[in-house]
Automatic annotation (TrEMBL):
Limits of the Terpene synthase metal-binding domain: 1-199
Cofactor(s) required, per the database record: Mg(2+)
Single annotated GO MF: terpene synthase activity
One Pfam entry name: Terpene_synth_C
Protein name: Terpene synthase metal-binding domain-containing protein
One of the GO biological process terms: terpenoid biosynthetic process
UniProt keyword list: Lyase, Magnesium, Metal-binding
InterPro entries for the chain: Isoprenoid_synthase_dom_sf, Terpene_synthase-like, Terpene_synthase_metal-bd
Length: 275
């Protein structure tokens, strides 16, 4: 239930930030969620904002009640949505100002704007175990979320390169080419990004070894497996087997990482987890 509802809402919010809503409406929506207890008839600048805010608030409150964690987790869920909306606002500002961010700037924002956080992180509260604030705010869990989201963002940007270019939007692929001083081809940029995805997949597997195997690991690994074939447009078993994430998450029967594989360097910095 959590996964499905949050997935639908992230799609709605993504459409709102990218196409349907103005920057003024997005700022208004962020302010409403920050205040939380508002009068929608007075504080919403448009009917569109009122509908989305009401849907978000109702869903977040419902999830907060049903988690049965022995403590309120509503504020944690709100924070994941605020992170997503603020990252969408940053991308809107770049587009409006025709800014060209560095890869580090783009990925620091982009691994959040891909929208995996509001789907996966609240779902952790429904896997049957009480998660303390220490677990939810742990560096291991946040690192795993960051790695997964980075893979999702990079895969999405490869798949959506032509669409984004047609709309005048920059993404990881186009920025790799731009910051390559005009000598990096599209094919070379794709190969470079796929290498990062593969290395981050190995890193995710390493982090999984230090995360509780009964709670966080199955959900996050499942999301990685779902996102990878989808974003690269794989439709057959053969195509899915070539997915860089699935390849990097393949381990031997002892559960060990493949030998002689470096971890690589990622573009983003870790963002502190809100409690």
């Amino acid at each position: 239930m959590s996964w499905a509802k949050s997935g639908v809402l992230t799609t709605v919010v993504d459409d709102f930030t990218n196409v349907g809503g103005s920057e003024e409406e997005l700022v208004n929506l962020i302010q409403l969620i920050e205040k939380w207890d508002v009068n929608v008839n007075v504080d919403c600048c448009s009917e569109h904002v009122e509908i989305i805010f009401s849907a978000l608030k109702n869903t977040i409150n419902e999830l907060g009640v049903k988690t049965r964690q022995g403590r309120s987790v509503t504020s944690d869920i709100i924070e994941t949505w605020l992170d997503l909306l603020e990252s969408g606002l940053k991308e809107a500002e770049w587009l409006r100002n025709k800014s060209v961010p560095t890869m580090e700037e783009y990925m620091t924002n982009g691994y959040i704007s891909i929208g995996i956080g509001p789907i996966v992180l609240p779902a952790l509260y429904f896997v049957g175990h009480d998660l303390s604030e220490e677990v939810v705010g742990s560096s291991e869990l946040h690192e795993l979320y960051s790695l997964m989201s980075t893979c999702g963002r990079l895969l999405n940007d490869i798949q959506g390169f032509k669409r984004d270019s047609a709309e005048g939007k920059l993404n990881a692929l186009s920025l790799t080419m731009i910051h390559g001083n005009g000598v990096v081809t599209e094919e070379e940029a794709i190969n470079e990004i796929n290498s990062i995805i593969k290395n981050d997949g190995f890193s995710a597997h390493e982090v999984m070894q230090s995360v509780n195997a009964v709670t966080e690991e199955p959900i996050i690994l499942s999301e990685l497996r779902v996102k990878s074939p989808t974003y690269v447009g794989a439709t057959s078993i053969k195509e899915k087997s070539r997915s860089p994430v699935l390849s990097s998450l393949h381990i031997n029967h002892l559960g060990e990482r493949r030998p002689n594989e470096s971890l690589g360097v990622r573009f983003y910095h870790k963002r502190p987890q809100c409690n």
